[in-house]
């Protein structure tokens, strides 16, 4: 009603319980509601366990110390799994 047609939803890898609103399960539930309301959904992957921006980016704890090849595979798998869960 106010001209918005896209909802940007931030998704974190493994947020703390206090920030569980940003975990994959909860974000995808909200994305479904947004979509059903007729808006487009923009999933914004933070690839972090908490807030991230260009000046503050922390790797998810589960990925810390992984060799480059395993890190790229973890990123791929996480992204794929979330997107497949969204369909």
In short:
The protein has 87 residues and is an alpha+beta fold. The chain is built from two helices and two strands, in the order E-H-E-H. The protein is elongated and about 50 Å long.
Give the SSE map:
Layout: E1 6-11, H1 24-36, E2 40-45, H2 68-86
Parallel strand pairs: 1-2
3D structure, described in words:
The chain has 87 residues and is of the alpha+beta class. The protein is built from two helices and two strands, in the order βαβα. Strands 1-2 form a two-stranded parallel ribbon. The chain is elongated. The two termini are 27 Å apart. The model has no long low-confidence stretch (mean pLDDT 93).
Our count of helices gives 2
Report how far the terminal alpha carbons are from each other: 27 Å
**Low-confidence parts:** none
Spatial strand order of the main sheet: 1-2
**Which structural category do the helix and sheet elements fall into?**
alpha+beta
| Radius of gyration from CA coordinates | 14 Å
Average of the residue pLDDT scores: 93
Summarize the biggest pleated sheet. 2 strands, parallel
Strand content: 5-15%
> Total strand count, please?
2
């Amino acid at each position: 009603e106010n001209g918005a047609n896209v909802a940007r939803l931030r998704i974190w890898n493994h947020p703390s319980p206090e920030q569980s609103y940003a975990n994959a399960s909860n974000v995808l539930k909200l994305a479904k509601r947004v979509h059903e309301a007729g808006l487009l959904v923009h999933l914004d992957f933070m690839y972090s366990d908490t807030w991230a921006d260009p000046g503050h980016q922390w790797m998810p704890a589960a990925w810390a110390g992984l060799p480059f090849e395993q890190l790229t595979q973890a990123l791929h798998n996480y992204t794929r799994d979330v997107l497949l869960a969204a369909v």
